[in-house]
UniProtKB/TrEMBL annotation:
InterPro entries: Met-tRNA_ligase_1, Methionyl/Leucyl_tRNA_Synth, Rossmann-like_a/b/a_fold. One of its GO terms (cellular component) is aminoacyl-tRNA synthetase multienzyme complex. GO terms for biological process: methionyl-tRNA aminoacylation. Keywords: Aminoacyl-tRNA synthetase, ATP-binding, Ligase, Nucleotide-binding, Protein biosynthesis. One of its GO terms (molecular function) is ATP binding. Residues 1-106 form the Methionyl/Leucyl tRNA synthetase domain. This is Methionyl-tRNA synthetase, cytoplasmic. The keyword Secreted does not apply.
Amino acid sequence: MAKDNVPFHAIMFPASLLAANEDYILLKHLMATEYLNYEDTKFSKSRGIGVFGTDARDTGIPSDVWRFYLAYVRPETQDSNFNWVDLATKNNSELLNNFGNFVNRALVFVERYFESKYHQ
């Protein structure tokens, strides 16, 4: 949830739940992020600016890559930017190279010290 939705979800929605006199469980913590922009402009569904669910699906990029990249560029302390070139770069350098290197080292370690066996 982005920072512009905080007033509604922190004040208006809980107030409407309280006014209903039902036993709704109210939120205890609310997390929000700064804005994630698209190629240096605001996402806008009405103007067709950005990448949305079906667009992401139609790219053929695996969902794990999308999850990794969006978590990587998550705008926690300042606005951040979605960029196609950056997506490819982060996928190749961070996910494939660095993570692949880690997995390779872990497998070599298991092979060397545990005779290629692991216990569940």
